From TrEMBL:
<keyword id="KW-0315">Glutamine amidotransferase</keyword>
<comment type="function">
    <text>Catalyzes the first step in hexosamine metabolism, converting fructose-6P into glucosamine-6P using glutamine as a nitrogen source.</text>
</comment>
<keyword id="KW-0677">Repeat</keyword>
<keyword id="KW-0963">Cytoplasm</keyword>
<dbReference type="GO" id="GO:0004360">
    <property type="term" value="F:glutamine-fructose-6-phosphate transaminase (isomerizing) activity"/>
</dbReference>
<feature type="domain" description="SIS">
    <location>
        <begin position="209"/>
        <end position="350"/>
    </location>
</feature>
<keyword id="KW-0032">Aminotransferase</keyword>
<feature type="domain" description="SIS">
    <location>
        <begin position="39"/>
        <end position="182"/>
    </location>
</feature>
<keyword id="KW-0808">Transferase</keyword>
<comment type="subunit">
    <text>Homodimer.</text>
</comment>
<protein>
    <recommendedName>
        <fullName>Glutamine--fructose-6-phosphate aminotransferase [isomerizing]</fullName>
        <ecNumber>2.6.1.16</ecNumber>
    </recommendedName>
</protein>
<feature type="active site" description="For Fru-6P isomerization activity">
    <location>
        <position position="355"/>
    </location>
</feature>
Length: 360
């Protein structure tokens, strides 16, 4: 069953491997018999009626929200703000006239997010919850729910819920774009099917990642992740994964930002993991890598097919440029997993952490 590890040594590895299947399940659940997108009219109406979306989330779900902002702005033409739940309540931004709140939460039980939900419902605003647990508190207390269909996620480190959140946000953006009669140059379900295949190819390359970890993250105290555009958001997630299960101090930075201070931490051999899946910033991220290499950094470039260079550490299959986080995150998850294994850490139950944080 979903609650058992089967032949897997850890839930996290099982859940990483489940991602292609989750993508296919989402494609199935969100299409009707004519292969059209299937979403509640009520959700569609709320999306087209709002003048701004406020995404509220924590941790990995917040990182998925950052990617979702790109979809909603670029495809559906709606301005989006993404907020960390614990900051929002007492540091509330000026709200637009017709806000729609979107809560992203794997568990649907995160107390920080719930307190925002309670507050904005008191203010009379509509809320949509995107969650893996349909009967959860955040789902019950919001006006609308979109399910992630990822199946139970047991490992404390979130993996398949993150990619499910991104896929559902893409579907939501495309559906809204269509409802607004906006032209879209791609079929989201077809593109997600390509993603599912790419994910499968990636989960078949565990040994390559394991070796990269052995050779580059063995005894390091810290590691940096750099990327531009959506690669930056995946860097935040890659760094969080590495921190929470391997206890390596890790930080994600926008490629151009490191030189404004943090580059002072680069020493001989400091691992710098760079993501290069975006054509428009491929040149600039590679020059950021050169800046750190010149200070002794050990660079590991994760690029995408079509943008790769000979010296890159790893190349992910080509997917639609908006959907690259769905594939580039997989080697980041595996990197964290093997780094934790290497250090004999408790992969599924890292110290100090609970699966869902139900206190504010
Ligand atoms: C992810 O690896 C973390 N364990 C954590 O950041 C998590 O994403 C966060 O607590 C939010 O949880 P939720 O999605 O259940 O609301």
């Amino acid at each position: 069953s979903d609650m058992e590890k089967g032949t897997y040594p850890h839930f996290m590895l099982k859940e990483i491997d489940e991602q292609p299947f989750v993508m296919r399940r989402i494609i199935q659940e969100y299409q009707d018999t004519d292969n059209n997108l299937k979403l509640d009219d009520a959700i569609r109406n709320a999306m087209t009626a709002c003048d701004r979306i406020y995404i509220i989330a924590a941790g990995t779900s917040y990182h998925a929200g950052l990617v979702g902002k790109q979809f909603l702005e670029k495809m559906a033409g709606i301005p989006v703000e993404v907020h960390v739940a614990s900051e929002f309540s007492y540091n509330m931004p000026l709200l637009s006239e017709k806000p729609l709140f979107v809560f992203i939460s794997q568990s649907g039980e995160t107390a920080d997010s719930r307190s925002v939900l309670v507050k904005i419902k008191e203010m009379g605003y509509p809320a949509l919850t995107i969650t893996n647990v349909p009967g959860s508190t955040l789902s019950r207390e919001a006006d609308f729910t979109l399910n992630l269909y990822a199946g139970p996620e047991i490992a404390v480190a979130s993996t398949k819920a993150y990619t499910a959140q991104i896929a559902v946000l893409a579907i939501l953006a495309v559906d809204t774009a269509r409802a607004k009669d906006l032209e879209l140059a791609f079929d989201p379900l077809q593109e997600l099917a390509i993603v599912a295949n790419a994910m499968e190819a990636l989960t078949d390359q565990k040994e390559t990642i394991e070796e990269l970890v052995r050779n580059n993250l063995g005894t390091t105290r810290n590691a940096f992740f750099i990327g531009r555009g959506s690669d930056y958001f995946v860097c935040l997630e890659g760094a969080l994964k590495l921190k929470e299960i391997s206890y390596i101090q890790a930080e994600g930075f926008a490629g151009g930002e490191l030189k404004h201070g943090t580059i002072a931490l680069i020493e001989e051999g400091t691992p710098v993991i760079a993501l290069a899946t975006q054509e428009n910033v491929n040149y600039s991220i590679r020059s950021n890598v050169q800046e750190v290499v010149a200070r002794g950094a050990n660079d590991l470039i994760f690029s995408m097919k079509g943008l790769e260079q000979d010296t890159d550490a790893f190349v992910v299959p080509h997917v639609h440029e908006l959907l690259t986080p769905l594939v580039s995150v997989v080697p980041m998850q595996l990197l964290a997993y093997y780094a934790a294994l290497n250090r004999d850490c408790d992969v599924d139950k890292p110290r100090n952490l609970a699966k869902s944080v139900t206190v504010e």
